[in-house]
Amino acid sequence: xxxxxxxxxxxxxxxxxxxxxxxxxxxxxxxxxxxxxxxxxxxxxxxxxxxxxxxxxxxxxxxxxxxxxxxxxxxxxxxxxxxxxxxxxxxxxxxxxxxxxxxxxxxxxxxxxxxxxxxxxxxxxxxxxxxxxxxxxxxxxxxxxxxxxxxxxxxxxxxxxxxxxxxxxxxxxxxxxxxxxxxxxxxxxxxxxxxxxxxxxxxxxxxxxxxxxxxxxxxxxxxxxxxxxxxxxxxxxxxxxxxxxxxxxxxxxxxxxxxxxxxxxxxxxxxxxxxxxxxxxxxxxxxxxxxxxxxx
Length: 296
Ligand code: HEC
Known about the structure:
Layout: H1 7-59, E1 62-65, E2 74-76, E3 82-86, H2 88-102, E4 106-110, H3 123-134, E5 141-145, E6 148-156, H4 159-165, H5 173-179, E7 192-201, H6 205-251, H7 270-295
Antiparallel strand pairs: 1-3, 2-3, 4-7, 5-6, 6-7
Bound molecules: heme C.
The site of heme C (HEC) has 32 residues, from helix 1, helix 2, strand 4, helix 4 and helix 5.
């Protein structure tokens, strides 16, 4: 099918094919690398959140002095100082409030049995919670949702959590007062309480990583095309073209100097071999002609 085409066109088709394949490969590689990078970033955020929550959970609640927007309990220590308590989820929500304002990456804590409607899970989060309940061995779940990378890691009930999430009868009075006894209870050790959900917007990210490497990749491809073109032209196409012209002249009865003296006898160059053979053919043709003329 390509037989009629010149060597140059064939080479061009071949190179285009290589470029197409490497572009697809490059895209797949970049995608994979980017997903890995996003997952690592989300994992780090989730690990930090878990560490922070464990720190709060170790004390049950942490106390802060003076007026705060939200708190679980309240204790007046003297006439001038009031302390307010923060449970792990509330402290995390306040940490998220500060961290999310300063970063592209967002995180939150949610549950299918939430106490605070602010922690209502969205579709990805509900699905992740249901999935972690079925697949206890898994420690994370992630996916691309439009331009956002979504990541979830399970929050497991540990000993420190039981005080406020097992039975309402053992829960601190403030929890019942503030949130009631219906929601966020009934958990046992090791059960999945909810997830840490991390969202990383990826808008412009593709372009950023593409810019970093693609310029060099494109320059390299252009260089390869140029070198391949010069190579086929000088080493293959031009000598073949010259040889074809000489053979044409010989076939019309002309005599051609094929410069065989410049060719080493033990050459491995296919074009040189053909040139030597054509030269021998030219010689034997001339001898045959001479003999014919003598006879005539
Ligand atoms: C001092 C009591 C207390 C302790 C200890 C505690 N929690 Fe909570 N937890 C709460 C309260 C109160 C809320 C509702 C917080 C809010 O308003 O965001 C909550 C909310 C949550 C939520 C968010 C969903 C919801 O119900 O609104 C998760 C998930 C959660 N807790 C998990 C845990 C885990 C896991 C531990 C142990 C590491 C733990 N909690 C320890 C009191 C507690």
